[in-house]
Amino acid sequence: MSTSTIVGLVLILVQNVNSQLGAPDTIPDVFDFDLYERVLDPELCRSQVEYMKTENQLLLLKFQDVSFKIPTGFLSNVNTNDFVQVPVNQEIRLPFIEGSNGVLSGELLADELRKTGRDPELVLRSAGQRADNSNLGSVLDNLTLRLGMCMPQTCTTEEWVTRLVNFNVSVFGFKYEEEYCRLPNDKRWVAADYVAIVVFSFIAVLTVLSTCYDLHSTFTLKIDPKKISPLYKSFSVYTNTRRLVTFAPNPNALDCLDGLRAISIMWVILGHTFSMYNVFANLLDVFDFLVSRGATFIQSGVFAVDTFLTMAGILLVYTTVGKMTSRSLLKTIHLFYLNRIMRLFPLLGAIVLLEASVFHRVADGPYWLTVARNVERCRNWWWSTLLYVQNYVNPNDICIQHSWYLAIDMQLHIISPLILVWVFSGKRSYAWSALIGSILAFLVSGTVFNFFFNLPSSNASIVRLAEQADYMDKFYQNTLTRGSPFLFGMAMGYLLNITKGKKIKIHLAVVLAAWVIAIAMFGTVFYITYEVLQLDWNNQLADNLYNSFARPLWAIALCWLVFACVHGYGGPINWFLCLQFWKIPARISYAMYLFHYSFMFIAAGAQLRPIYFSVAQSLFDYLAHLFLATMAAFVVTVLIDAPFSTLTKLLLGGGAKRPRRPPPPVDKVANDIQQENGNTRI
């Protein structure tokens, strides 16, 4: 066996071990796999193969073209439908050639990798294995190739291969195990599909009726817009679109947050584009990129979520202090929670229903198993996502994988009244004590937690890939370890509120020093993010410190940035963040966050063959995903989010406000009070 063949197989090996598209331990129960058994017909299989071999060789070439080899897809776009697992450690015998003995073993693979200048341990890390040079071969011997082929649906894998080559490959000692087979129209219809049809059809009907009513009232009857029923026009595309693209000036608005919110969601989409579960033909080049300096900005995209949490804390306090007291908060605590739930639920419920039904049917492909697994999660665990407990109840099977952030956000809002009751007390000493005390409590408990579990410091660390599940469950999706940015945001929101409308004078030297410190904090986070991803990284103390304090440092620097921009010390940064350009992306950022990842899974699942990774191609894909997410977010915001927002305001506000009547004469007021209170005088 030639060196080039072995290296090519190693590329496939790395590609398919712990498959990037999630080679299944169990196949998702969303396909009708009994269909495969029902259509098997050995006689028909034989006749079809003979027909292709004797009369239609072009069709036979098409079947072979999309089966496992490099490259695929030259003649056609037929999908690979059958996947098999082939052990790496095999001894191939050619009985008709004397002395023939081809061996494909772990030791041989390790030797060939060394000849190409690659570190064989990289293969093990990609498979979640740990080994030193002494047992590389033995570990590789336990690995398997995951290969796909296309064949007539009447044939089994053994029948197809045997009839194709006119002999049984097991004679040569070649071993493989059939993993699963996909057939056309094997997606079963379930309750979620019918619910989706009913729900989205109902919304469509409401949208059409509401829009017609709104347009008829506005343009035909020329009724004053203020007199048109807000309930009847709540689903109007015309009104909701106008509101979305209309910006009324507000002197108390924190305009810089629009830029931060828009840039953060773009950063999230960028990071997900580069980390998407695509199948690459040059996977070792992908690993090289992951540890390069150019990938640092991509890997640091995880801090965009901490930016969202910080801004959520800022707005929670900034928009409520002065409007409520501790007593009124306790009396209306149910409305406080209901308002937050209704802010998140409509779009979250929509994406859960779409993931469980519609997204499963919009496309298909040889790598569709990952989409199918997402479908199965949403059909089984939809309730945990809608109750915002998915990061604890089923952390490994989250419906809408990135919705863990919404769970943390909701959980922090649930416990926030414990702090707000002191913030709303009217006494600044109580407010600051509660805010600082909660920050210290989270920092101390989070630090103890991190030092107890000794987790890695990144979910992209190649050297500790086997610990990724623990890292995600215990740290990345944990409210305790991710909550401090929200609390720092609450403190900044309180500071901005008590300084609202005031001219804050800060000495230039102090401003410059604060900016230098903030930039140093941002830079430190970026630098350490790069270091912890290197293949020679081995510093558990630094990992624990990074997990405990990197996000608080990020939040502190971000809080200064917001404070400086609000009070006139932001300079060009404030000008950039306050551009009108950011306002629409900021308003639809929640929808963009929810929907973009599902579109990426669909695109990756429909991929027909391994692609060649390059930074330029990934950036091009990013622009495509960003455009698609923006368009989809705009549509669902107009059709779903805006209508339910209006209904929530009508519900919680007691309906539309009636125009105020002119105040009654003073004599009448006095007379009414005297009648009510007897001889009481004014």
From TrEMBL:
Keyword list (alphabetical) reads: Membrane, Signal, Transmembrane, Transmembrane helix
Q: Which domain of life is it from?
A: Eukaryota
Q: Pfam families given for it?
A: Acyl_transf_3
Citing just one GO molecular function, the answer is: acyltransferase activity, transferring groups other than amino-acyl groups
Which residues does the UniProt record annotate as the domain Acyltransferase?
256-640
- Keyword check for Membrane: yes
- Renumbered to this chain, region (Disordered) spans 655-682
- This chain belongs to the protein called Acyltransferase 3 domain-containing protein
